[in-house]
Amino acid sequence: SLPVLLFGQELRLVPYTGQGSLYLNQQIAADTVANGKLPNRVYVLTRGALYLSNAVFTNTGGWTLRLKANDSTTTKKPVVMLYPSGTGNTPWNPPGNLFQLGGSLSMRNIQVSGYYELVDTNRWNMQGALINVPSTTSGVSITIDSCILSNCNGNHIRTDGVPSTIRVTNTVFANLGYLGRSNLGAGKAIDLRNVTCDSLIMVNNTFVNWLDRIVRHYPASGATSTGALGYFQFDHNTLVNGTSYHGMLSLGSMGSK
Q: Listing from the earlier edge strand, what are the strands of the sheet with 138-145?
């Protein structure tokens, strides 16, 4: 089956259906090749359905990547799992991220897991992150609402590059870090490294089973300072069962609010 066009700029992506199915990353890539990088495109995922991703997808060219669940009477979320790549020296490993951002990202009502949970032993091969802003990218925003992000070795969201705004609301962060592949200094919700961020807003979220910090904004090894975190709001969040090996909130240079 093929992706289905909905009204406006929405495109319904096809769930995993077995052998030969298109992966999520492949469907988005095929759409951007066929139709260009449409400025208002929204990728719609079916509630209760399973999607697999077997390679990191990058929204190159500065366009905003938008994903949401379809409108429905069910409260089940679409589930995206990172699937073994099948190539290279370690074909059993899932990709190191779901998305690496060359532009902004918006996600609503999506569930993401860092490994293919239907084969339980795949957890041994978990990789380092779910969403990353590479060092070559700046000025992007990340907006996540009513999602579930679970299962990675390192950081569910990491910014080596410079984000403008990160806004996370009504979202569950679960299972941050895995000692089978990493260490107690990993397992963070948001790792800003030592870069500038205009605004970091975290409201009405739940964090469960984390090893290190909820927010890490701290100098890299050998550095002495961080870029400024201009505005920080951490409000009405629930935190359960965390090791907090280096603390809970690790904040470097701060702005006025």
A: 4-5, 10-12, 42-45, 65-69, 105-108, 138-145, 162-169, 197-203, 229-235
Q: How many whole angstroms separate alpha carbon 83 and alpha carbon 221?
A: 32
If you average pLDDT over residues 80-104, what whole number do you get? 96
Report the candidate in 146, 151, 248, 249 with the shortest Cα–Cα distance to residue 200: 249
Name 83's Cβ contacts closer than 8 Å, sequence gap at least 6: 23, 52, 53, 54, 94, 116
Round to whole Å and give the CA distance between 182 and 188: 12
The predicted structure's pLDDT at residue 256 = 84
**Under a CB-based contact definition with an 8 Å cutoff, are residues 81 and 122 in contact?**
no
176 touches 153 (CB < 8 A): no
Q: How far apart are the first and last CA of the chain?
A: 50
Looking from the CA of 90 toward its CB, the CA atoms found within 13 Å total 11
Contact status, residue 25 vs residue 57, Cβ threshold 8 Å: yes
Among residues of the chain, what percentage have pLDDT more than 70? 97
